[in-house]
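Friendly challenge for the regulars: who can give me the structure tokens for this chain first? No prize, just bragging rights.
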Amino acid sequence: MKISYNWLKDYLPLNEDPYQIGEKLSLTGLEVEEIIEKKLDIPNVVVGKVLSSEKHPNADKLSVCRVDVGDEELTIVCGAPNVAPGQTVPVAKVGALLPIGMKIRKSKIRGVESVGMICSEEELGLAEHSDGIWVLPDTLPIGVPLAQALQFETDYILDISVTPNRPDCLSHIGVAREVGAIIGKPIQKPEVQLSEMDQPAADYIKIRIDTPEGCPRYAARVIRNIRVGESPAWLVQRLEAVGMRSINNVVDVTNYVMMETGHPLHAFDYDLIRGGQIIVRESVEGEKFTTLDDKEHTLKAGTVLICDAERPVAIGGIMGGLNSEVNQNTVNILLESAYFKPESIQRSARYLDIHSEASQRFERGADPNGVLYALDRAAQLIAELAGGEVLKGAVDEYPRRIEPKRIPLKTEQINRLLGTNLSAKEMSEILERIELRVEDGEVVVPTFRPDLERVADLAEEVARLYGLDNIPAKEQTVIQYRIPRNELDFFADRLREILTGMGIQEVITNSMINREVWEKLTGKPIYPILNPISRDMDGMRNSLLPSLAQVIQHNRNRQIKDLRIFEINRTFHPGSSLNEQPKEVLRLAIAITGKRDGNVWYSTHQDVDVYDIKGIMEALLDKISLDNYRFIYYSDSVLESPALQIVAGNEELGMLGELNHEIASFYEIDDSVFVAELNVSNLLENRRTDKKYQPIPRFPYIDRDLALVVDQELEAGKLIELIRQKGGKLLSRVEIFDIYRGKQIPPDKKSVALRLIFQSPERTLKEEEVNRTMTKIIKAVEATFQAKLRE
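First reply, four minutes later:
Bragging rights claimed.
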């Protein structure tokens, strides 16, 4: 925010050094990044008049000008496209040293002698960019030093970094209030004196607000018989000093009042407003609107629109429309001053990618009760500068008044927070310097300070105005040296160690995803972001899998196809309504794709499959001592069917399977991707904490292979569970080493080959007792599952 020191003098009697003011502002929370001196008191820069301008004989884009500078006529070669005879211009004579560091010398340009320079505002240090020379008012005396002719007072521009919570300081009055509080002088706002016509404005315009949630207040005035033209020099200088370009006297006034009060305004050509009516409503999905910059925008539902009786004429709080702009032929204007909810402006401005001076103020929080003052101030200036007739009264639609907040002045609490010993009277005097009135032990917070909500906020205001250097440092601080152990975080770190030890690489991705795409792909609701930074990041993910899919896509686009990656991060799950905070769950997700052994000489060149991801899960669960789990068939929109769910008792641990082909295709992945996603908290709760160790067996084991023909649909887990039960204490391990379907096996059957390991920690087993156990097992599986021994 650029603030003119001379402009501040309109509200405060300032004699202090601008650099000292900048330092004091920085100490109270308004960081002054730079102070730029703007002056025209430059030796040998005078007012001149262009007598003639002819094309340079040796250059197409240069002109040879004859310029009167009072005591002589100079020949000057000029490259500006807008130079023309009869213009009054600033002229730098030989010997002048311009603010941009250029010293003017007599020179030859393409064979023509040039004595001096016709200057632009940029070359004189008054603007960051100029499209041509500076054309001055014709009334200025020729040959007089430029600063004297313009009565230009050296100015100092304070470039202030205003934090998002201080919208009141996006104006000269707001900064003047802060400066006044620092130097102990009250500000004086300009008094508005309007000369109104007898005809009521309400006869010419009606206002209806259909969306009070987005626009709680809308006011307007009608000004007739104006003359649109150039602004006076003082107004142009004021705007240019703070980086704004002059357009015409009407638009310049609205910008001036915005920079003065912090409240944006907009002027419509009244004769282009159809039906004498303003309707404030929300847009419908896909509605189109062309803004002042001649760009057509497609709107999403919920954007606040300012409409006449037939069509939209502005996007509320952001930008006006091309169909109602003030132009050189405008005679009557409708002047708007409104208040828009910050949330509405933030959402719409980012979606449309329009960032205007108006939207910057509304999205941070303008003053709803400053609407009429800004409106009347602008109406007064337009009447003075454009000769308009202001109709009687403002049409003000304000369905539900926004009242100032009241915060109790808790002196003891504030002193405790700050380490001070101030009385209630001293605190009141400090707060009243920034217009925070104290009544009956409560601070009445004006609506131009939406950032003040609690006692701690008042403590901050007291601290910065009292002076942080006046608050004594505390000699002793209570520090908690013992950091409480967070079991979940330690467990997550342990999972990282295990997985990286297995050769799986950790990735960290963004929690925000494309809400519309993921909901369409999975049918699962996504918690929306009200103020997204882009359309592709407008929802909080409910799964880590879309993020891993993006990582795989990114790597595949760079010819890296053999991937094993994991992420441990939070997912967000919506409650019954958007008014509830989403439930956050810490999850672990793993994704593998490509070749099982990679691209090495000894590789089998086999692709990974579901057994690889299942094996990773089994190894991980074994490492964390979680052995009471089982796999069951499962169906999920994210995975291809059949998928597996991992459960412990009645609690779900997670799922695994092949990523849905439609999702993989969306991310341009044409190979199979196998994934698993687990709930970290559930893993922590179900692992064994009472670990028991046993010595390595001293006695040899006996193994038996068993091939059974069973129904195609029989789950191998159930078969193993029965074998373990019947094997008793002698059976130490059961492993499946083959599953066969094909010749000699009926089409509705499969052959499952198992290796059974029998071992005792106490003695060497005998063949007879192992055979008896095997017979018992075979009879059980035959009776329970109608299994048959494979021949």
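The radius of gyration is 39 Å. The chain has six domains: 2-39+156-183, 45-153, 196-397, 405-465, 487-686, 702-789. Your move, everyone else.
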